[in-house]
Amino acid sequence: VTATGCTASTPPILSVRPSRALVDEAFEVLVENLPPVSPFTLRSLLHSEDGDDWEAYGRYVSDHSGRVSVSEDLSFGGTYSGMEPMGLIWSLRPVPGSRTGLRLRKKDVTTPMLITISLYNGHEDFRDNSPLVSMVTERWYMGPGIQRIEITDGELRGALFIPPGPGPFPGILDLWGGGGGLLEYRSALLASRGYVCLALEYFKTGQMKSTDMSFEYFEVCVTFLLLHLFSESVNLLKWTFHDFKSSLFYIKFFLCGVCDALVLFLVFNKIRVDENNHQIWRDVGLALLQEPSMKVDVAKINCPLLLVNGCDDQNWCAVETADDISKTMNAAGKGHLLTRLDYPETGHLIEPPFSPHCPAGNIIMYSSNQKVIQRYGGKTKPHSDAQDDSWRKILSFLRHHLYCSQKAKM
Question: Are 173 and 321 members of one domain?
């Protein structure tokens, strides 16, 4: 079925509002001046920094006034279905024929992701047809006025992001997992929400070494961040010594998961593969949970702790680890410091809102320097909902404990 009535004299009008926004902000896509009650396809297309094309699309029917509103109307199929205002973003996936194991991650946060929204006639395959109308929208991780300072101070490697204005602003040290490299997009987004954030690189991709993982390196990082928090030029909130020690311990606790990666290579027999030959690592974590020597004594934690867990995480035993932490902290009378967010049908990579779901992705193995595909788990719609909900709650958690608590001390 194709629509009729779209002529040169009555072209459709496509609008995306706002056309320029942060990646965690929703937009509205509206098409007007269409033939009434006719089928159309809306498609988003992104060309990644890695040279791959990602797309999402929904099939719509215009209403009696000749309008299609993605925020108000149902999609009757495509990469998403139902009323999904941001479906054109969170359901992005590699176009057919792309390389396997792709994950969409922004490398240069000083530039936006450019996403082209296009309208096509009908509900047939649109890829060989020309769009009726198109519009480019910008999605940013780094808001206006954010300073990005590359850090190469001695052994320290990272990027510091500072919000605009006089402050005061709390500080955050942003650490990732075992993939390696310098990842900045979450730090840039946190800075856009009012935090000085240091994105830290602690080993190169595929080059994990024990010397890179020494705790002293992270002490240097926290000290560096504190110096910037205390500087008059930035005019940031000052942490008390108690907060400083708690922060260091939290980093040490986090490093338990990172340093375990060194031990993972000793327990390869626990790695399984699925029907697609994708590696499943969660049993490795389950084995490590049975080794007391591999666990930090979380009973010593004296600062609030938020755990975000995907219940279908196939890369790590997230829920079981959270259960173990909760049991230990409750026994020590510190359960009140722990907040848990558990999300059903959600996988390993819980990213900022509207990030495309990555059920399996490429990773370079330290032991062989070979690329394999790890299964991360999750289903696209529940995983996307979890990313949106957890991000709002993470920001609320940070605001309560880093802004409100500090104001109470002043």
Answer: no
